[in-house]
Amino acid sequence: MRQLLLGLLLWIFHLSAAPPAQAQPDAAQLRQLQEMPADTNKINLLWKVGMKYRRYDLDSCFHYFYASIQLADELQNPEFQIWTRLKTALIENDDGDLRTGLSISHEALRLAKKTQEPEYLVESYNSLGIAYRDLAIPDSSFYYHNLAEQIAQQNGLTEKLWMCYLNLGILFNNTQDYDKASGYLEKGYNHVKESDNRIQRGVSLFWLAENYFYGDDLEKYVQIVNDWHDFMSEKAYNPALDSPQHGSLMVFDPAAPEVEGKLKKAIQIAVEQKSSLAIALQYQSLGFHYAAANRTTDAIDAYEKALVAYNNINIIYGAYEILSRLYKLHKTEGNPEALTYLEQFSAMRDSLQNAEQLHNINELEVQYETEKKNQQIAERTRERNSLLISSTLLGLLLLLSVLFFRNRLVTNRKLAQNESALQQQKIRQLEQDQQLLRYSALIDGQEMERRRIAKDLHDSIGGSLSAIKSHLTAVEEQVEDLQTQPLFERTKTIVNHTFEDVRRISLDLMPRVLELMGLAEAIEDIGARLRQRGIDCKVEIIDLQQEPPRHLSINIYRIIQELCNNIFKHAQAKNVLIQLIFQPKQLDILVEDDGIGFDFVAASRSSQLGLSSLQSRVNFLKGKIDFDSVPDEGTAVFVQIPLGEENT
């Protein structure tokens, strides 16, 4: 509901400039696309045409969006390569394809890093933050929005800084941390409250009011409502769009049970502050809430108090809205006062100059005149009776048609049932085959692990023991020679290295820390071993409430261990991030490095990186794994594992 209202607010701000909801590209635009040269002007036109398809034909919409990306790549224009990707990612997120939006945002970030332009970096990090917020991964969302904020501050990008603060405020609002949300939203509003950009100021006021309302800071909420009225009364004031019913920010979720108490408290605060406008707006909000809950008597009482308050301060558009609602409520209840409110409406005609308001009044007058002409309605009733007879005859014909085709429908239904049974049988067979493949892959992974251990024993310990044997033979031959002391020292060194190899292989087979200290300490141990090898590794484990089941902990450990072994052996990385986020029904794992990356298709065809073993473990846990890697630009691996009955 809140996101819907924000979308409505933005739509109101863009109304004068936006195309109609069903506007389609005309033939001239499409012909121009075919004829114009491949340059940045064509990219802009591709995007405009795509936006015109946005409301009714998503396939055509995305066709033009991705065509704009392709043309930007052909022109090798960094600005448009980044811009088209960020806009397309935003639309993909809005239409629910969050993973695609995330992937496109990562592409934009890689291009932005090549340019090192602060503005591109800020926009790309913000885009990633929004994608992770929509994916319900708040820690990653905060990480990228925070990076965007730092770059914007360092480079004096004030307008971009507003967007960073807004996104951080929305993030904490979504997690119901209203105090932190208020801090960021207030920072954002302070950046734009003196600006000429009405969209930025309006959106900031909306989110501040929403946050104060649900955060129970109703004194600030009342103040924001007054600020909103001042904002709507500026030079760009348009009564048709900016009247109180559009701009009061009054009810964010009418069905929420806590709304009534909050609004009554807001009314009390407004009375104490002697703010007549706020009193009127909150009574109007309360009436709207009661009407939505079918509490008609309470709604009428609240609206009448709002009407008195609007008349006291001579806000005619507010009174107009209240009269409309009172008329409809009294008419629903069958009260004679309904005509009284219609007559008051008629008296407002000369005071309302806006065409939209006049149109609404004319509609209500038509209703008023209709009620005064009951005799004409009675005459038309006879015409409706004639129409009813014709409809009855048509219904009889339709009934005969239904009876005629009944037997055919029964036959088709039986055929469909048989076909459904066959499909179910095929599905069960496919599930059995998939289970067998999963078990086979698991066995293959175990065999690969055994081969690796054998190779480690042969290459590390076998070679060390051979050297020890050779040295001991030499010692036996020269036992009385005082010059053998260096040989003893070298032998001792080899023995120490052999013990270290045995300990490392033993830890790889079954890490002692996992048995004794649990999963969190075991993952920290992996990070510590990477740091010992000269790689800066950061480990983040979030919301681990209790130790997972043993088989789940072992497989999670093995997955991260294998990914980190690959990083050490192949990636040439300097920095690594290991992140585990435990949610009520899902575990999200991210392992990211800044190494040389790899070609995923080529690696999948070989066994060098152990991708099949990783995939087998993830499949065994009924999870998903995604690789995002580009040569020379690093690698990010995302793993999602369900935490329901599947892995208990």
Uncertain runs? 1-22, 235-251, 353-366
Strand content: 5-15%
Largest sheet report = 5 strands, mixed
Strand order of the largest sheet: 1-2-3-5-4
Report how far apart the termini are: 35 Å
Count of DSSP-assigned helices = 27
- Radius of gyration computed on alpha carbons: 35 Å
The strand count comes to 5
Q: Name the assembly state.
A: single chain
Measured as a percent range, the helix fraction is over 70%
Shape: extended
Q: What is the overall pLDDT average?
A: 76
Secondary structural class: mainly alpha
List keywords for this structure.
single chain, 648 residues, 5 strands, 73% helix
Structure commentary:
This protein is mainly α. 73% of the residues lie in helices and 6% in strands. The protein has helices at 2-14, 27-35, 40-52, 58-75, 78-94, 98-115, 118-134, 138-154, 158-174, 178-192, 198-214, 218-232, 239-242, 244-247, 259-272, 276-292, 296-312, 316-333, 337-347, 355-371, 374-477, 485-509, 512-517, 519-532, 550-571, 600-605, 611-620, and strands spanning 536-542, 575-582, 586-593, 624-629, 635-642. The protein has a 5-stranded mixed beta sheet with strand order 1-2-3-5-4, covered by helices on one side. A hairpin with a 5-residue loop joins strand 4 and strand 5.
